[in-house]
Each structure stands twice: as C-alpha cells, then as structure tokens.
Fold:
Amino acid sequence: MKLEFMSKSQNEAFARIVVASFASQLDPTIEELADVKTAVSEAVTNAIIHGYDGREGIVRIECSINDHTIEIVVEDEGKGIEDIEMARQPLYTSKPELERSGMGFTVMETFMDELEIESQKDSGTKIRMVKRFGRYED
Ligand SMILES: Nc1ncnc2c1ncn2[C@@H]1O[C@H](COP(=O)(O)OP(=O)(O)O)[C@@H](O)[C@H]1O
Ligand SMILES: [Mg+2]
Structure:
C-alpha cells in the first residue's frame, strides 16, 4: 500500500486511520492497532513539524504485510536529521518552544518491534517500523 499526502497537520489523523485500516486485515487486537496508530501518528507528525517545518511538502507512507507482520515506512523530503543518535534519545527535542515532549522516537520504539531511522541533512528522513501481531498465539 502506498499513500502520499501534503504536509498539513490535518492529514495526520487521515494517515493514522488509513494505516490502521490496512493493518486490520491481520486481525490485530485493539491494543496492537492502537500501538500502530500511535507510532504512525508520531512519525507523520515529525515529518510535518520537523521535516518540513511548516513548509509544504509531500509525506509518503508505504505499508506491506508478510505473515503476521506489518512493515510501515514513513518518508519526507524535508530538512533531515543531523545527529540521529541524539534525536533518538528520550526527552531530546529540537523544538522545546513548541512544548514537544521529545518522546516521539521512544514511543515508536516501544510500541513497535523494530525501528530504523535513515536521514540525510537537507534531503529527508525515512522511518521504517515493523510490528508482529499475535505474538502469544504460536
Ligand atoms: N522527520 C524528521 N525530520 C527532521 N527532524 C526530525 C524528524 N523526526 C524527528 N526529528 C528530530 O528528532 C527530534 C526528536 O523527535 P521526537 O522524539 O519525535 O521528539 P519531538 O517531536 O517531541 O521533538 C526532533 O526534535 C527533531 O529534531
Ligand atoms: Mg515527535
């Protein structure tokens, strides 16, 4: 599944719902679905607020399903992250003036099974997240 939308905050809820609808074919629990929604919401909000910094741009999402696993890639062509290790630290935010909590990456890491961040200054950021559903079944 591929999705493209403008970097407007109104689209964050849209993106979250589309990914949740796509994920629902794996028959997730309500909690698993809530985890995916929260992680997507954090990644998309980051692309809009940090990546494009209020400017207009395109946010891309790609999702794929394999067995009981969903892979979600959220990509922007915004300003990029200079120091990924620092950005991943709990409570680190480059926008304390917006009362950001600095917990976005920590939330993605906690709610998903895998989190990879690829980024290049001035060319954009790509977040890849994986979650396995029904871990207690088999
Ligand atoms: N898509 C992105 N483009 C550029 N910078 C980003 C992006 N996502 C995250 N960052 C950087 O990583 C920092 C940490 O992100 P996060 O943990 O979500 O905290 P917060 O969004 O509250 O600042 C951000 O403050 C920002 O500097
Ligand atoms: Mg954030």
